[in-house]
Amino acid sequence: MSGSNIAFAKDEEVQSEHKLGYSLNLFFIKTRFTLTNKRLIGDIPNVFLVIPLGNNNVTYPLNSITNVKIGNGFKPIRFFIGLALIGFGITNLSAGNLIVLVLGALMVVSSYYMTIIIQTAAGSLIYHQIAPHERAKGQQLVNDLNLAIAERM
Questions:
Q1: Residue 129: enclosing H or E segment and its boundaries?
Q2: Beta-bridge partner residues of 116
Q3: Taking phi first (over 0 means left), then psi (-120 to 50 degrees means alpha), and beta for anything else, what does residue 49 get?
Q4: How many CB atoms lie within 10 A of CB 36?
Q5: How many CA atoms lie within 13 A of 91 on its CB side?
Q6: Average of per-residue pLDDT values in the chain
């Protein structure tokens, strides 16, 4: 994000930058976070289905963040619909249902997800989706952010 048009305060310094994949299906879309000594800046992709629609720039002052963690989840309905589509696609492959097979596979793959969860001082939770294979990078961001929050206190 250092190449982006981010205006920094006079005594603000970048402590770390993180570039994380958005999802397994949309591996080419990246979420970017920049951590400074005063705030967390995010460049979050806006996505509709599989269509990228731009980015949302967000800023969270460190003194308003109380907790940060990584969460994961599983969407069973999406998983079972995906399995049904795969089964239908395989049984009717001769009828040209390759697209149904691919759609089912994408649904199964996207049924498992990870999020970075930021809790504000007001108690609200903010979720930012990341790809499950980016867990180590996400955990590094969470560790850096928790360290920065601890140093501010």
A1: strand 125-130
A2: 70, 128
A3: left
A4: 20
A5: 6
A6: 87
Do residues 114 and 134 lie in contact, with contact meaning Cβ atoms separated by under 8 Å? yes
- Looking at residue 1, its pLDDT comes to 47
Give all strands of the β-sheet with 39-48 in edge-to-edge order.
14-21, 30-36, 39-48, 51-61
Per-residue model confidence as pLDDT tens digits over 41-67:
998 888 887 788 888 899 999 999 989
CATH 3.80.10 fits 1-65+119-153, yes or no: no
- The three state secondary structure string of 76-91 is HHHHHHHHHHHHHHHH
- Nearest-5° angle of CA 117, CA 130, CA 50? 125
Measure the CA–CA gap between 78 and 145, rounded to whole angstroms.
32
Return the structure tokens found at 40.
Answer: 């967390």
Helical H runs in 2-134? Answer: 76-91, 98-109
Edge to edge, what strands does the sheet with 65-74 contain? Answer: 65-74, 112-120, 125-130
